Amino acid sequence: MDNNECNVAAQHSRIPYLSLNSLHVRWNLSAKGIDVSSIVCPSCNNGVETKDHLFFECEVARDLWHKIPVWLDCGMLNLSSWDSFMAWLEGIRLRPLSKDRIIAVTVTCLWTLWRFRNGVSLRFFL
Ligand SMILES: [Zn+2]
Question: Which residue, of 59, 69, 111, 121, has the greatest Cβ tally within 10 A?
């Protein structure tokens, strides 16, 4: 490792913190007693909408995450949950410029998945 490499984990504080119980996915809303019409993922209709499903297990998310290695010219990501995502971030070592780039891409992917989910969900109310 040269002096320009650094641990991404030191920078992951830039990744938005998502508490398991605070994100308003359908499973969390239902668990809080809020009446939701369905706890099924609105994006794929093929799983309970949990944080892990929304960001990593859903076919929409998997398709997006599989494109990252191509965009960043890096190894395949094997992300299946928020915990695996954080472990991956903590385990990789990159040069500062690469680190900034991968954080920007991953945050953009998370935000894009959340916005896509909200767009699909809102269609049910229009
Ligand atoms: Zn889904």
Answer: 121
